[in-house]
Structures are given as C-alpha cells and as structure tokens.
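Backbone description:
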Amino acid sequence: MTLSSLSMRNAKRQARDYLVYFVTMVMTAALMYSFNGLVFSQEMLNLGKMMEVLPMVVTMASIVVVCIIAWLVQYTTNFMLSRRSRELGTYILIGLENKQVAKMFFRENLIVGGAALVPGLLLGNLLYQGLRALVLSLFGKPFSFTLGFSPKALALTLCYFLLIYLMAQRKSRKRIRSMKIYDLIYFERKNEEAVIQKSSNRKKLSVVSIVLGVIGTLLIMAGDLTLGLIGAGLIIAFLYGFFASFASSVPAYFEKHSEKKYQGQTLIVFRSLSAKLAAMGVVMATIALLFTATQISEGAGLIFRAMFENRYEQNSCFDLMISSGTPQEEAMAKGVEFAKERISEEYSREYNIYFREETQNTDVIGSYIAKKGDYYRYYKMDTLMKFSDYAALRKLLGYSEVTLEPGKYLIHCQPYIARILKDWSQTVEAGGSRLEFGGIYTERFAQYLWCVNGHGYIMIVPDEIAEASVFSHRVYAAKTPEPMDGFYGELKEQISAVLRAKDYEDHNVDLFLYSRAEDEKETASEIATIVFPLYYLALTLTMTAATILTIQQLSETDRYRRQFNLLQKLGMDRKDMEKALRKQFAFFYTLPALPSLLISIPFLLNMCGAADSGSLVGASHPLILLGITFALFFFIYAIYIFMAYSTMKRNVLP
C-alpha cells in the first residue's frame, strides 16, 4: 500500500470517526462562500451608497473567522495526533521516516478539508441565495433565484481554507518530525495533572477570579472605551482562573465529602469527568470565552436590528420632510419650492413649530418624563404645534379626526412616553394662557427625529396660543400616494446648488432634510453591513466551541463502552445507565455555558440601556431580545449535544 492510498484510507476513517468536525468544516465553507459572494456581488453594491463598506466589513469578519477556524483545526489535529500517536509511531517502527509520516498526516487532514470544501461550496451557493434574498427584501427589491458560482468568491474561499490548514498543520508537522518512536507510542498515555494542587491555592484563585469577573463586568457596563477594554481583560482572567480552580477543586471537594460520591449516579459521573476536567481547564475557559463572544454577537445583532427598524418605523410616516430654524433660509426656500412643483398641496403641509415663552425656560412635560422614565431631553422648553396644522397632518396621514376644546391642549407622543404620562393631568401655561390637559395620541408622527415634530412628544394648542409663543423651526412635510423615483436626488442637488453659491463652508446652515426612501435604504444598508456580519461571527463561534466539546466527548467512546459493560455485569440496569450518561452530558455541556450567561446577560442589558429612548419597545423589548438571543444560541448548541448524545448512547450502552 502506497503512502497516498494510506492517506486516503485514513482520511476516510477520520471523516467517519469525527463526523461532527467534518460537518462543521462543511458549514464553515458554506458560510465563507456565501458571505464572499456578497462581497463580490455588484448587485449588492448598487443597492445603496452605504453598501460600499460591505466588502470591508465582511472581509474583517472573515479574517476573525479564519483565525477561529484555524484554531479549531489545530486543536482537532493535535487531538487526533494524541489519539493516533501509537499508530504513527508504529509506522516509523516498521521503517518509515518521520518526515514521511508527517507528510502523510498532513495529507490526510488536507484531504478531509478538501472533502469538506466541495459540499460546503454547493451548500454555500444555496446559502448565498438566501442571504441575497434577505438583502433584496430589505431594500424592497424583487428576488429571482439564479444558480451559478462566483469565481472570485470561489477563489477567496479556497484561499481561506488553504490558509486555515497551513496555519493549523504547521505545528503538528513540526512535532511529528522531531518526536522519537517512544514518545509517539506513549504520547496518548500522557495525562495532564490538575493545574493547582494545593487546596488553599484553589480557594484563593477561585475568590480572586470571581472578584475579577464582577469588576470586569461592571467596567464593561460603564460605557467608557478604556474601562471597557480593561473590563474585557479582567473577564478573560476570570474565566481562566475560574476553570483552573474549578477543575482542580471538584475532585478535592469529593475527597473531603466522600459520602456524596455514592448518591445516585454521582460516583460514575464523578469518576468519568474528574480527570477530563483537570486536563481541560484551559480549553473550558477558552470555550466559555467563545460562548460569551457568541451571545454578545447575537444579542448585539438583534439590538442593532431592532434599533434600526424601530427608528425607521417611527420616522417613515412622511415621505419627505424639510426643516429649518430660519424659515427665510434660501436653501430651504429653494427645496420647498422645488418640492411644491412636484407635489400638490393636497399631499403636503408647511407649518411652524413653537416653544413655550422664553420666561418659562423649562420643559414642564419633558422634566416630568425625564424623572419618571428613560428620556433624553433634546429641548430646554416644550414644543408646540397649532391645532389646525395638527388636524391637517392627521388627515394627510389618514388618521382619525380629533377635536380640541377651548382652553385645553393635547399631547402627541411616542407610545413609550404615553405609558410614562398615564397619570398626567397637569395644567400648563402657554402663550399667556393656562391650558388644561385634554388627552394623548400616539400614532406615528416623525418624533424620533430631532428637528421636526418635537422629539418624543409635542403639545397641540389652539392656533392663537401657538402664534403668541416663541418660534422654533419651520417644517415642510409631504405624503405622496406613489413613490417618486429620483426625486430626492434632484431635490438634494437643488439645495446643494444654493449652498455652493453661498459658499456654505463659511455659512452656518440650519437645514434638515429627510426622505423616507433614503431612510429605508440606509436602514437596510445598516442591517446588511452590521447585523449580518455579527450573525456570521456568532454562528462560527458557536460551531467551533460546540465541535471541540463534542469531539472531547466522543473520543471517550471506548472507555465509556468498557465502563458500562462492567456496570451491566455488576447488575446496573439500562435505565440507570442512561440516567448516568445524561448527567455526564448535562454537566459537561453546561459547565462552559453558565459563566458566559452570567457575563453576557448584564452586558447586553447595559447595551439595551444605551440605546435611544423608545427604540426598544414592544416586540423589541430588551427581555424579549435576550430571550431570542439565548434561544438561538441554545438551539444550535442543542443540535451538537443531541448529535453527540445519540451517537454515544448508541455506541456505549449495552
């Protein structure tokens, strides 16, 4: 048998014995190709100006993915080397040179990588079509399935895979070349000892690591970049310190409380996992770190998407809005004039926004909202709108008619502010008159923008009261029955021409321009360039960590089989064996996931708190987003656990 045929045979056996690893590499290739397809798709780049940054963002994410998968391949390769060291030593014993064995081992792993690459590319093409459909739907574009490979995406994916295997195999090749026959044959028998032997040192390290974890989490939640970096370092130290002390302290605990060994299946679980935990402290800490990064990536992606979509939802009631604090501003006048040429008065309204009197230099309603809830006060005084303008805008938007009784005022606000104002009934002074509260309305009214219809809320008052108040800014709003393609670009050019003529670099321009169509494109671009890469990273991190845990478990198949055969002979029934096996799996897979939850939950809650007020409400409530985040994480994690448990149960139980 030649070395080539031997390599091929061993590669087939490797793919069969480490099926989970092979499937993960297939999925990795599919993810890489699908996102590389987005990078080289001119169709994607033409969707919006912001999409031009998509190639850079995806490439940066892919570099991180390459490093993570290279670590996975290196870890798996070293693990295979330790498990097959006796076989490789035998090859040298019968006359092969070390470099020949190293070359054969490298060729085996390269064959496995190539075998995973082929189905991965086929699956990746389908996955790319799915991503393409999602992106096009975000932009409101039609989707048609097209089957075909991108040569550039194919070449880049191939380069990534070659880089991964060259990086990962370098160490194992060097090790095989330098090891002696004795070292190879007995390499598998080497057991790692507990990291910390003394009980007092274990306790000290455990306490110190927990303190570092708490401090690190608090620093990350502080919101400062420097403190956040320090906090991240402390959390990493916590994870490695915790698992180094935990893996050593579990055996010590049962040695001190020996009576607890014999409760239920504890003795079996303890004996099976104590040695593994002692040898896997660093690996467990690394996996917990990967899980933490996974949950934060998934949660951040959901939070960003909710923020982008809710912001667009709140603002998109009008198709076009132009605003300026100086109504005689030539740029705004030119823009309004151009808009009126294209949009009839039936579908538009020009109006003023006012402040309460300058002598009342505080926002009565705004102060109340800020005290009772989460609200950022953009204005020092409450904003006012004429009731006639308000009624016309409601009609323009298709809302129901409202009435305003003399001597009263209304409040139109975002839904979350209405909940804060549920007990509001104060009388407010405006325009030299005292007005009583008349009710609250919460339809979408472009109140997420800072220079239009108030920020978050606005008071609706009788016309004469508003006119007697202080002018804030003038607004032109339009709601067209049909989209006007290219209109926003022409309008922006008209305004830019005025600004260029006035040498706008030396001119204080007080102008705000909003287009629903452009906002829709911007929102879609933000989701595509920020949220999708975060999901890409999260999925890769989850698969990597779960694969390592699964490989570790399945590698113990022979030992578990001998153990359960012996237990059967001693009289244990199959039901108790299954219960013991489930406990082993539950403990082993829960251990690295638990610390990641304790870190990621407060981090994500703090991230939600930093979002704009009112952007995370309803179906986007922080608790709902956290629930979805962990549901997605544990769904993927559970797939690996189920695969490992089913295989182990089938192969080891008598």
